[in-house]
Specification:
Length: 349
């Protein structure tokens, strides 16, 4: 019994291939334990979850502390422990067999589900490919029909354009013939000109001379028009420049007027400042004279007090603060002596 208790306490006891841990090494977190399983094939861990729950329930029903309770009869405790251990082992084996059968059933259902899923995926892929092929064929047919329609329309447009061009050429040909008939008079006139002016050999020379004169006239007209445009632009630029300069001159005149006013104000303020400075200097001179008089008075009083007290004159004339401190001490001493004299006079009466 002690050996069984020690083996359970140290964690070396096994029950049907399962290691029984002591309660000191078993960690609980409330009523739920966090288990990590594979997400891809969770059916493989269904039996393990059920077995763990059953084992936990059995462990709670027959805890080690209850089995190893203190009892007077060690033999009865050992027999009851072996009996409960045998029953627990039978229950666990029955549970394992049941969970194994349940696991096999779930595995078969899962395999069948995977096969159905694979067939469905293959059928879906075939249907998708068939749909894509039909769509591609339909798009190619529509594209070909559209191209043929566009080609027919373009050919018809070209035929209509050529028909219009032929009609236009016929019209122009007729018009040219009419103009040639009307221009017969001009041809006779140019022939007479050639006969009168020997510098022209043919009618083409007369026409070229006429074209040259027309081009020269057009060139001169263009040049004159450009010159007039340039002159107009120069005139506009000059007027704009004059206007801008007038504005600038007006602005400068305003600035000059403002500066003149500022100069006059500054001059007035400078005169006032000079008067004020003069007054300050005069007051400063008066104050300095008064300060010198006070310093001389303090020095005279200090010399007089030192001579009266028969003290040497150690303080320099420039150290007024020390002289004032000496005078204060002397006056304090005199006040004390005066009070002492008054007390003695009062006691003498």
């Amino acid at each position: 019994m002690d050996t069984l208790r020690e083996s359970i306490a140290t964690g070396d006891y096994t029950l049907d291939g399962y290691k029984v841990l002591p309660e000191s090494k078993v960690k609980y977190s409330g009523s739920k334990c966090k288990l990590n399983f594979d997400v891809k094939h969770p059916e493989q861990y269904v039996s393990q979850i059920a077995e763990s729950k059953d084992f936990s329930r059995l462990t709670q029903q027959s805890s080690t502390n209850e089995i190893l309770s203190t009892n007077s009869n060690m033999t009865i405790n050992l027999a009851s422990l072996q009996l409960k251990l045998y029953k627990t082992g039978e229950i666990l084996r029955a549970l394992r067999r049941r969970k194994s059968r349940h696991y096999d059933t779930i595995a078969e259902q899962w395999e069948k589900l995977e096969e159905d899923e694979e067939k469905l995926r293959d059928n879906f892929i075939l249907f998708n490919n068939f749909t894509k092929e039909n769509n591609e064929k339909r798009l190619r047919s529509e594209k070909k029909i559209r191209e043929n329609t566009e080609l027919i329309q373009s050919r018809q447009d070209e035929i209509n354009a050529y028909s219009k061009l032929i009609d236009k050429i016929d019209t122009v040909h007729k018009e040219i013939l009419k103009r040639l008939r009307r221009g017969r008079v001009y041809e006779d006139f140019l022939t007479n000109v050639i006969e009168c002016y020997p510098e022209f050999c043919t009618i083409c020379d007369v026409v070229r001379r006429y074209i040259a004169l027309i081009e020269t006239k057009m060139f001169l007209s263009t040049r004159l028009r450009n010159a007039m445009d340039t002159l107009e632009q120069a005139h506009e630029f000059m007027m704009k420049l004059i206007e801008e300069k007038n504005f600038i001159i007006m602005g400068l005149n305003n600035q000059i007027a403002n500066l003149q006013a500022r100069y006059e104000n500054a001059n007035i303020k400078a005169l006032e400042s000079e008067t004020l400075v003069t007054q300050i200097k005069n007051n400063a001179v008066k104050q300095m004279a008064e300060i010198d008089m006070v310093k001389n008075s303090i020095w005279n009083v200090y010399v007089h007090m030192a001579a009266s007290k028969k003290h040497p004159i150690k303080i320099k004339k420039e150290k007024v603060e020390e002289q004032i401190m000496y005078l204060n001490r002397t006056l304090t001493e005199l006040a004390k002596i005066n009070r002492m004299i008054k007390k003695k006079v009062v006691k003498g009466r």
